[in-house]
Amino acid sequence: QENKSEVVVFSVPSYACQRRTTLENQNATLTDALSLLAENAELSGEDGRGVAFRRAAAVLKVLPSPVKSASQLAGLPCLGEHSLRVIKDILENGASSEVESTKESEQFKALKVLTGIFGVGAKTADRWIREGIHNLRQLRDSGHTLNRAQQAGLDHFDDIKQPVTKAEAAAIEEIVEKAVASVLPGVRVVLTGGFRRGKLTGHDVDFLITHPEEGREVGLMPKVVSWLEAQGFLLYQKTTRNSYLESKDGPGRPPSNIDRFERCLSIFKLTRMEKPAAEAPGDGAVNGVRADGQRESDELSRSEPAGAAADRRWRAVRVDLVVSPISQFAFALLGWTGSKLFERELRRWAGYEKAMSLSSHALYDNNQRKYLRASSEEDIFAHLGLEYIPPSERNA
Ligand code: 8DG
Ligand code: MN
Ligand code: MN
């Protein structure tokens, strides 16, 4: 007879791309804590530690019930000594001292605010912090010359830090559809990134653009951007040309996970969505509390006077556009759907377990010494010997 009081022991495959990770999470307290440590490590230039925490968090995300004791975790992959210590701390004491002190640390807070500016990475933020710049006011007062991206990021800081809703993503999709249709008929636009995985909000909106006839997509991006610009939809854009064909190291093996599609990182000017009447009786801030419930407390990380944003009839939204030839579309779609950890794990699986190199352009088999064709994401999973995982289950 089975012992009913026996604790549940979990079992999980070790690569995130072997697992189905939905947005449902029975261990959010633990995964939030590990994700914060991952973020701190990444912002501090410790990428290895960052990945370790991300992998540990991803394992906890797929557990079917809340972890009650550390003994349940025996045998689970990717849980290093450090992650286990954090988990135990939370299970036993309700919180992790390391997580709490990180959250409160001036260094972490300053890194978060400064890298929250579009165009500012961890290195730049760290340099500024060492000069005593910890917030937006100090950055403005410093007289530093910002590049065009950073200036746009600073100008639209408040808007960009607000999560993008699905409704806003749909509105932007309509604009992008209209833009590509007026420039070249037959073009296909697909919403990728977090929204394709079923997320309800995002930090930006990602699109992949292609044309069913190979080659017709060439030169598309500048035309789309010109159309959007002429219509007044762009507050900022930077287009990068496709360098894939020109590269010497051959297809399938770009030097990093950064791909070479023609892409456009942009900030859209989106007409504000009407809020449901019951929710927005004045649409403005009342006693410092906005309609979205967040307090406008941090004077130092705000870029315009309180309430000013609510008076505008538009808001700024980060949008990424990528153009791919149809022959690489499946790889591009898989590569731009995420999550970032899922992508990383797919490439690790391909390399270590299958001796293949996966990129957002191609899949190369190092043993057969040839490229493997794919016209769908399903094809790619099959080549990799993996069960197909749909986008909604790639939320690792
Ligand atoms: P969010 O915006 O909802 O917060 O999350 P997300 O949509 O998952 O993240 P993202 O930062 O917008 O990235 C979306 C996907 O795009 C993710 O899988 C990573 C991928 N991606 C980049 N940059 C690059 C790149 O340079 N090359 C390739 N191949 N993929 C990239 O963000
Ligand atoms: Mn995104
Ligand atoms: Mn993006």
UniProtKB/TrEMBL annotation:
Q: Which GO terms describe its biological process?
A: double-strand break repair via nonhomologous end joining
- The answer to whether the entry has keyword Nucleus is yes
Q: Which UniProt keywords apply?
A: Magnesium, Metal-binding, Nucleotidyltransferase, Nucleus, Transferase
- Where is this gene product found? Nucleus
The annotated regions of Basic and acidic residues compositional bias extend over: 292-302
EC class (word):
transferase
State the function annotated in the UniProt record. Answer: Template-independent DNA polymerase which catalyzes the random addition of deoxynucleoside 5'-triphosphate to the 3'-end of a DNA initiator. One of the in vivo functions of this enzyme is the addition of nucleotides at the junction (N region) of rearranged Ig heavy chain and T-cell receptor gene segments during the maturation of B- and T-cells. Gap-filling polymerase involved in repair of DNA double-strand breaks by non-homologous end joining (NHEJ).
Can you tell me which family this protein belongs to? Belongs to the DNA polymerase type-X family.
- The name under which this protein is listed is DNA-directed DNA/RNA polymerase mu
This chain's source organism reads: Kryptolebias marmoratus (Mangrove killifish)
User: Which section of the whole protein is represented?
Assistant: 169 to 564 of 564
